Give the backbone structure.
Amino acid sequence: MTTTTRLKPGDPAPDFDTCDLHGKNVQLDGYRERWLLLSFYRYASCPLCNLRVHELARKQPGWRAQGMDMLAVFQSRADRMLKYVGKQQPPFPLIPDPEQRLYALYGVGHSWTGFFRAWGMRLPEIGRSVMGRGFLPGSVEGGLHRIPADFLIAPGGTIIEAHYGKDIGDHLPVERIEHHLKEAA
């Protein structure tokens, strides 16, 4: 199934079969028994993306205990991911998608408006949080103007939240994720 339209709550999460950063098979079907946060990022050295992975890695142990797993998709090759975001060794699979097939499957796009909007809105965040943690930008793979997206998928495979970012640093708020997990408990 290939889609270029945006998904919405109530839609079934499109199935896929791919490999993670280390060559381990990842199938969406393998996560149907638990909650899943499927996140789409920009490129492996994107400072804002690395900050988000860092934040989610800190949350993951508690979320795993509440029945939620995570997958992170990047538009970079595995070797680039190992050099940048992979250095963090997050407790969830990182998926390279340089052909951007999963992005197309989930309707995740590009926006120059979103790219430029972010610089005005996120400059303090970039300077304080991102650079302060050593997440310096490197080479860009797959498009500088990729906009991130997050999908919160319930057990059984139904999309509960489909968050398509408005700019290059806009993700589903952690509070929304925790709200859904608390409601499900």
Q: What stands out?
A: The chain has a mean pLDDT of 89. The chain has five helices and seven strands. Residues 34 and 67 are 6 Å apart (CA to CA).
